[in-house]
Amino acid sequence: MIAELGHFALVLAFAVALVQGTLPLLGAARRDATLVAVAPPAALVQLLLISIAFGALTHLYVVSDFSVANVAANSHQSKPLVYRISGVWGNHEGSLLLWVWILALFGAAVAAFGRNLPVLFKSRVLAIQALIGVGFLAFMLFTSNPFERLDPAPLEGRGLNPILQDPGLAMHPPMLYLGYVGFSTTFSFAIAGLLEGRIDPSWARWLRPWTLAAWTALTLGIALGSWWAYYELGWGGFWFWDPVENASFMPWLAGTALLHSAIVVEKRDTLKSWTILLAILTFALSLLGTFLVRSGVLTSVHAFASDPARGVFILALLVVAVGGALALYAWRAPSLQGGGMFAPVSREGALLLNNLLLASATATVLLGTLYPLALDVVGGPKISVGPPYFNATFVPLMIPLFLALPIGAVLAWKRADLVGAVQRLWLAAVLTVALSVGLVLVSDLELGLSLIGYGLGLWLILGSLADPLSRAALAGGGFGRFWRRLVGLPRASWAMVLAHAGLGVLVIGVTATSTGQSERILTMKPGETAEIAGYEVRFEGVREVRGPNWIARRGTFTVSRDGNFVTELASDKRFFVVEQRPTTEAGIHTTLLRDLYFVLGEPARDGAWTVRLYHNPLVVWIWGGAVLMALGGLLSLSDRRLRVGAPRPARVPAAMSAG
Amino acid sequence: MRLRKRQRLLLVVLVLLLGGGSAALVLAALGEKVSLFVSPSDLAARPLEPGKRLRLGGLVEPGSVTRGTDGEVRFAVTDGTHSVRVVYRGVLPDLFREGQGIVTQGQIDASGVFRASEVLAKHDETYMPKEVAEALKRSGHWKDGSTGAPK
After folding, report:
1. Minimum distance, in Å, between the CA of residue A42 and any CA atom of chain B
2. How far is A71 from chain B (nearest CA, A)?
3. Which terminus of chain B has a smaller tally of CB atoms within 10 A, N or C?
């Protein structure tokens, strides 16, 4: 009954999406206020219907209704409640339901919060949003119905892949999808803008909160995924350049470029066609990511299903959405009027450089991800493109980007003023060099890539902080005045500082972990000690423990340094009874400066065990940096100017009559 | 107007420089930094020069796994027709066992032994890496039912 209700709600949502995707467009073209007014309530109804479907599926999982094929294939009564719930999106059909639910969520959010949008524009945005929904709802209803019944119903379900039974992974897909799907709004804004033929600073202003929200969620989603891979996959790596990781990283890169280019449109009324193109491409990359992950063309832990019909459907969806958008772009973009002049040394010039570098970086990642597939399709040799490729192509593009970033951030709009930039940044530059030299002197750091990494990270942090500090200091006056000026800076400025400094923190973390990791692989008998990076590790032995739906052999280690107790760590080899699969849980001790990361391996001879010990310096900085960047995004979202500074009402009638 | 032209020229030069630079990086990397997927039969038929990055795929030959001290593992990867000896130092993935389809990343050394830097066994026990399945089909040792569809 509940399953049928959910299915029915999905069918209704499909019908509503069809209405919402067509009538408002027709109404906008004919200036028919009645048809246009359909859009906002339809968007809210759609959210309600898909929420009902989502609630229904969640209910089926919670009560373990195995007469539903999806639940039977992916759940089990012995699973803890939280993983029965997260199991809803731990499979192909359920994750698609999450996808369309978030799509509807963003549509409803535009309907509810986009009060400052002109009526025609808003209805067009909502219509495009609904058309994307039509495609994905059809995909669900025709190829991947989560509510399909199973007859006869099995007594027990098949369980969920144990590595997905994890708190980090319960949160990772929803966050990632908020980002992925959030870029659907920027896509809809771009198409609606093209349809109206009016792209101007106010358009960029409307776009900004949606880009920021999607970007923030995507940043957190990727960070969560990387953190999960780090502690769950058991080899201490944080990023593998796996095609599926790349699939989420490409929209992030393009979205970051979009975030910056939209500022140029907002402030200088130029770079419009490029920004529109970026908005389309960012969502296209999100769709491509969905295609790569969902179609099964990639072999990866993430590839749940590989039904050729599904792959073809998503590919068709991708071609129609992106092809249609690009055709519209080709037709309409030439009529967009460019704005003012463009001095090479200026804020807009720097943002352009940012965009060029980010776009090139996206392209190299895209090539590396698709090249093996393309080669396979034309019958070439089977190859795999891994970290060496990306280190050789992606990293060199980031170096000039990071070097230029703090400089670009202090440049003024329009006019070239390098002297001012030097005035604000010389201290940060001197400090960066001094600290880097100091680092080489006090540690056994070798000259080379790691030094470049640390230097760039320091430069990003110091250079970003230098701007507000020097702005407040250059005004003169005592400390009280300095402090007031500092606090008085707009939130958006602080947001920028936070995000850029967060990037610096991340760069330092990545550098430290990739170049300074110590690893020891050895066999240890209970009672034996080993040494890693100055810590003495005593292997206490292995015992059996039981979890809710697994049994495990747990190895414990006591860690001390110079005779002082530091911590006790346990690493499990878990065996999930239902799924008949083993997993490894690393024992991790985290401080701001380093992670100790121990993994229990297999039994070796004479009661000894293979163990792997890692010392990962500054690894937590990677996720800390990403969180700082996301906080920057949130802070910028909260800036009053963003909410209040929308176009004055006087402009709305003008928008109504405009093309 | 002349100023605008000069700016446009500057932009074009910058784009060409960046585009050309990244294209050069990509081409160089695609030539050297990718690994070729090979099966044991491929290696037997056409020995590759030592030191080239390879991904070797096949089944872990039953009875071939021996564990040395300090985490060194020796085993053979077979596709039913030929097999290659592999040496790996490190903790094996959870799903590594004899008869399991695996992919290892590494290089052939001068004595013809494959030195693996990474061993991958996919996280689904019924799952067979696509490349391995195809290699097995080519060598005629593919049994339907020995693998399920990846889930």
Report:
1. 36
2. 14
3. N
CATH number of B36-138: 2.40.50.140
Chain-chain contact of A521 with B25 (C-beta, under 8 angstroms): no
The model's pTM: 0.90
- In the prediction, which pLDDT does A602 show? 82
Is the per-residue pLDDT at A67 higher than 60? yes
Query: Nearest 5°: phi and psi at A107?
Result: -60, -45
Distance of CA A190 to the CA centre of its chain: 21
The answer to whether residue B78 scores a pLDDT higher than 70 is yes
Q: Which residues on A lie below 8 Å from B70 (Cβ)?
A: 521-523
Distance CA A18, CA A319 (A): 19
Q: Which helix (H) or strand (E) holds B104?
A: strand B101-108
Asked if B106 contacts B118 with a C-beta cutoff of 8 angstroms, the reply is yes
Per CATH, the architecture of A1-161 is what?
Up-down Bundle (1.20)
Residue spans of beta strands (DSSP E) within chain B: 34-38, 54-60, 66-67, 72-78, 83-89, 101-108, 114-120
Residue A270 pLDDT greater than 90, yes or no? no
Domain residue ranges of chain A, discontinuous segments joined by +: 1-161, 518-620
Short-list A507, A529, A502, A539, CA closest to A628: A502
Both structure tokens of A583: 């997993």
CA distance B93 to B96: 5
CA A20 centroid distance within chain: 29
Contact assignment for A521 to B11 by CB distance below 8 Å: no
- Per-domain residue ranges for chain B? 1-34, 36-138
B93 prior amide bond cis, ω within 30: no
**Which of A126, A142, A154, A183 is CA-nearest to residue A69?**
A154
